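F.,

This is the one I mentioned.
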């Protein structure tokens, strides 16, 4: 038991590297979308971490992230699906053993943008920009997002629970002079493997 605890501590010592596969959920919304509901979606991927000092580490990763919004207007259910590969680069500050505050930058690259509409049991799905233009809306959908993540994590026996808020700085959609940005709360569970 003593050797196991020493090994666990050594994996996160100064100068160490680890990889952390993780999965979780997003609760995503968008600015300027009054009356809409959050889209609850999947997030998953992996992050690498370098422990620079006892208190500071640098992490970077790639996460598949389902974002967007849901809405219901006059009995018509609509879901805007905007999915990204997000690449967070974070500075982690360990307040106490296992508990870290984190912030950094996060570029994201869109891999899917669709609108799913359901009415009277019939479902139609099409590209977001195509759907808006078909409705007579002058619009553009951006393929790159840039966000600032803020969060905290707690690690116990290599398991880590991570909660973040990703505040988008770039416009995801521009339509008829209005713009919308992503606003995403994310919680994940991961496991750290020493490298």
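My design for it:
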């Amino acid at each position: 038991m003593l050797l196991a605890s020493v090994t666990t501590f050594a994996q996160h010592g100064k100068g160490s590297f680890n990889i952390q596969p993780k999965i979780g959920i997003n609760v995503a919304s968008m600015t300027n979308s009054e009356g809409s509901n959050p889209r609850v979606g999947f997030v998953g991927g992996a992050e690498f971490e370098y422990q620079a000092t006892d208190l500071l580490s640098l992490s970077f990763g790639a996460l598949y992230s389902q974002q967007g919004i849901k809405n219901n207007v006059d009995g018509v259910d609509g879901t805007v699906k905007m999915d990204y590969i997000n690449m967070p680069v974070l500075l982690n500050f360990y307040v106490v053993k296992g508990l870290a505050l984190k912030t950094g930058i996060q570029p994201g690259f869109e891999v899917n943008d669709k609108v799913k509409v359901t009415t009277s049991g019939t479902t139609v799905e099409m590209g977001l920009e195509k759907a808006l233009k078909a409705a007579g809306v002058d619009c553009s959908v951006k393929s790159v997002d840039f966000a600032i993540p803020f969060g905290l994590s707690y690690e116990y026996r290599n398991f880590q629970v991570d909660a973040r808020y990703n505040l988008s700085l770039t416009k995801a959609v521009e339509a008829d002079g209005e713009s919308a940005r992503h606003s995403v709360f994310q919680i994940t569970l991961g496991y750290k493997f020493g490298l």
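The chain has one domain: 2-194.

Talk soon.
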